[in-house]
Model the fold of this input.
Amino acid sequence: MSGFLRKTILSGLGAFLVTKESVEKLVDELTSRGEISREDAPGFLKEMLNRAEQNSRKIEQEIRQRVEKTVHSLFPHLQKLDDIQARLDVLAAEVEALRKAQINLAEAQKRAVSRKKSVSARTKKPQQNKRKES
Done:
């Protein structure tokens, strides 16, 4: 699609350049025939080029709007896909957070079991010593 837009813009630029050459040629002809004075020629040329540029902008804007409308009509699901992708991104982040929480919980449980064993081992040693003494 970007190739199409690039060609469209370049063709618009080419049309503007052709228009500039055509306007310059027209101004030269009008000046040589005496229909406009040599003093008025630069202002007339500038005015015509400004109009041509404005028209080129309008045409470019119209082309962009039509291309966008065409893309949306051909692929109406694109917006839906964007929405789905955004929702998937949120869900993926939530899953990742839950995974990390699960890992942290498992590590905490291992530490608790280890502490419990340690405490249990310490309390068993004095009891074992008391039994030996009896």
